[in-house]
């Protein structure tokens, strides 16, 4: 080796460093950045970034989360429930990717994870990624189910808590959901409650009947929008928020819905003519066995989502029935029994994912973690 001399040693050293640099650069290029990392590297370098779709940018400080105006851009973030634009990366969508990744054409992309490659540089006067060369879907989301790792991230701040601390943490996670109008609830229910064996129909909550999606209305055998947490219990009516929250709105037979009225939930009573597996007395309603757990988990969701902050009602589950206009719903002990008796099924899971992905961007935690019911109540 001595015969190479000083010049040869210097050349070999430079060559080694050069090869090492190529290898290092290639490794970096192949790996993906998080959105938070990408926000710090706005130097026009070509990078690959992974993040959840949280909206469509329309200014440096605002993003659209529904009724998207075009297919030209995405906002992505490290957390699917991110609301602050300062934690989002704005991604330019070239024409060749708009049909597959534009939100106007594909609103169901909301909440899904994507991987994008391009130049990290300002877009809409905001930290961004432009000249996009590749766009791929990392997780399918939607009705196929949310991955356990995504759910762990979503509920991270609630993990390990119990009692009022758990209830408070879950409230913070699911609070401030995207609100839709009562008119838009019609179309939403056609998707959230679609019959898995017939895409033209919805399943009615209390009767279990599969019925045409377009047969909604006021007729005797039509279906309408049932507030499982009776809207008079707190007198919130059909106002946006509690009155239009899809996590407790279900399609039901018009006549059966009228028979239920604003009754609390409990066992007993006489069988209902159009819903023979459903029973009622003067102050309570007992749904068919197949949805008793669904009803319980919807009531528990409402009691956590609406806690009296931001000018909203404080809804609570109570052991009493015949609660009138008080913001209370019972009967707690019966609902706890129903929750155990009728475990979470695929229809509930798919419905939860549909609401989260395409409408409100929040989840019913008691569908994802049934064990939390006992830790709170």
From TrEMBL:
Residues making up the signal peptide according to the UniProt record: 1-25
Origin: domain of life: Bacteria
Region named Disordered: 242-287
Alphabetical keyword list: Hydrolase, Nuclease, Signal
UniProt KW Protein biosynthesis keyword: no
One Pfam entry name: DUF6359
Start and end residues of each Endonuclease YhcR N-terminal domain: 33-137
Identification of the protein by name: Ribonuclease
An annotated Gene Ontology molecular function: nuclease activity
């Amino acid at each position: 080796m001595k015969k190479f001399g000083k010049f040869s040693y210097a050349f070999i050293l430079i060559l080694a460093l050069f090869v090492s640099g190529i290898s290092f650069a290639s490794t970096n290029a192949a790996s993906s950045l998080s959105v938070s990392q990408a926000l710090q590297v706005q130097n026009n370098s070509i990078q690959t970034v992974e993040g959840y779709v949280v909206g469509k940018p329309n200014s440096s400080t605002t993003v659209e989360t529904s009724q998207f105006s075009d297919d030209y851009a995405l906002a992505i973030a490290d957390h699917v429930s991110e609301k602050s634009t300062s934690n989002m990366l704005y991604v330019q969508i070239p024409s060749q990717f708009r049909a597959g990744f534009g939100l106007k054409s594909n609103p169901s992309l909301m909440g899904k994870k994507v991987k994008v490659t391009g130049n990290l540089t300002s877009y809409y006067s905001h930290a961004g990624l432009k000249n996009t060369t590749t766009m791929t879907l990392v997780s399918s989301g939607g009705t196929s189910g949310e991955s356990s790792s995504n759910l762990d991230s979503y509920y991270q701040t609630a993990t390990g808590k119990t009692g009022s601390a758990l209830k408070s943490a879950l409230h913070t996670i699911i609070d401030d959901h995207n609100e839709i109008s009562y008119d838009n609830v019609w179309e939403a229910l056609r998707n959230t409650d679609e019959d898995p064996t017939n895409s033209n129909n919805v399943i009615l909550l209390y009767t279990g009947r599969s019925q045409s999606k377009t047969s909604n209305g006021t007729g005797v055998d039509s279906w309408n929008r049932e507030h499982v947490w009776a809207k008079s219990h707190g007198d919130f009516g059909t106002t946006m928020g509690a009155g239009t929250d899809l996590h407790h709105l279900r399609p039901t037979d018009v006549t059966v819905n009228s028979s239920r009225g604003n009754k609390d939930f409990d066992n007993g009573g006489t069988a209902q003519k159009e819903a023979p597996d459903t029973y009622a007395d003067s102050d309570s309603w007992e749904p068919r066995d197949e949805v008793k757990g669904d009803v319980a988990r919807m009531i528990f969701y409402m009691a956590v989502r609406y806690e009296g902050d931001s000018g909203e009602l404080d809804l609570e589950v109570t052991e009493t029935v015949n609660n009138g206009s008080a913001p209370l719903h019972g009967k707690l002990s019966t609902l706890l029994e129903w929750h155990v008796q009728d475990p979470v099924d695929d229809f509930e899971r798919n419905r939860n994912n549909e609401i989260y992905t395409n409408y409100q961007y929040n989840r019913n935690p008691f569908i994802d973690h049934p064990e939390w019911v006992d830790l709170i109540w």
